[in-house]
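User: For a teaching handout, I'd like to show students what a predicted protein-ligand complex looks like in token form. I'll give you the sequence and the SMILES for fe (ii) ion. Please answer with just the structure.
Assistant: Understood, here is the input followed by the structure.
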Amino acid sequence: MPGVILCPGQGDPIGVPSVPAINWDQSMATGVDAVDDWNKKVIVWLNTLLAAMLRGKGQMEIHDLLDQLGAFTAAYFAHEEECVVRHKCPAAKKNAAAHDKASMLLDSLNAEFERNGATAHLTVRIETVLMRVLTGHMKQIDSGLYPCVQAFGKTV
Ligand SMILES: [Fe+2]
């Protein structure tokens, strides 16, 4: 999977598998520092959530992380949508539609957690589907803001 790396030796005792993680890279850059910072924070949330699930952290911790990720992405999406409109980015509608789909995905993951807890199936869905959707969105849609910022200048 592109963009996925293994992070060996991050404090894991011998015998505990390394946690797959995603790192922000320049292909996700929007040219707006605030938006890039938010994207980086979303990635940190995702990595933290996934690490907690893979390490078998408590249900309450997983619940809190899912809640925080949902609240954070809702605020982040709203802020970014304002930014895209302000920079007259032609991808504004596509961006908003993708945010709606990602929000629905997060809701379905939360619902699955409420029904079944932090199962292996949910972990795999977060690792493969949510991470791919959000990082793909950053690379394929959010990065479309970059040429608009270059053309119109930063307004943030
Ligand atoms: Fe976006």
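For the handout, you might add this sentence: Residues 80, 95, 99, 137, 141-142 surround fe (ii) ion (CB under 6 Å).
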